[in-house]
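Aim 2, interim progress: modelling of the AR6-bound target.
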Amino acid sequence: LSSISDNANLETKEVEGQEVGSAGYHANQVYLDDIPTLAFPSISTSDFQFNLEKAADIIIEKVVEFANKFRNARLVLVDLSHKSKILSLVKARVVEKNMDTQKFFTHVGDITHLYSKGGLRCNAIANAANWRLKPGGGGVNAAIFNAAGPELESATKEKVKSLSPGNAAVVPLPSSSPLFTREGVTHVIHVLGPNMNPQRPNYLNNDYYKGCKILQDAYNSLFEGFASIVM
Ligand code: AR6
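Predicted structure of the complex, ligand included:
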């Protein structure tokens, strides 16, 4: 396993009574350093049906670019299940490329409960949004809007009306939002990725030339947005 468990440099403190998760690290860890952290889901690979191998390559490419540019920041790719195919593909590449697992690792858990259930403090979380930036619709978008309360919808509306594919919008979370008070998240960054699902808007009809370009732009825009908050 590539992630935090193998990393001797990352100091962690176990919370008493927690069991060891099947990922091989303790489910509730407190990260003693406070490096600015962004947690993000794999953009476009579920409802938007983007190819997982191609997405994993792009995630690694963009994470490496970010890590070379911003040394004092951490990125965490999150998915709900230990069986997540995208997490496995990305973890394999992290090992292959011998990447610094203090600056980038994968985490299994709900992105709306990273601190309360996973002991992972994140300043910002990314949302795989829809172009209207509306709540609901399933996936991580529904989870984040639900968890953040109506505060996120109004804060989003104030900031931006819609997104085109490949773009991200940074939204400061009002301090009354449960995501802020419970999880310590100060910003949600909405990202609109490429769509390969014929039932959703801006369907790319299997055009992976365009699709890859848009996914690269989406991660660029997401990571630049994160850097603009914490640097
Ligand atoms: N915590 C962590 N990861 C999650 C969670 C969660 N609570 N929920 C889902 N994922 P998707 P897309 C993972 O479908 O493909 C929406 O309805 C999931 O397993 O949310 O970009 C929007 O409104 C997958 O790895 O996003 C858009 O219309 C990843 O998050 C559309 O779907 C992204 O899955 C966007 O589709």
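The pocket of AR6 is lined by residues 41-48, 78-80, 86, 110-112, 128, 130, 137-141, 143, 193, 200 (CB under 6 Å). Residues 1-30 have pLDDT under 50 and may be disordered.
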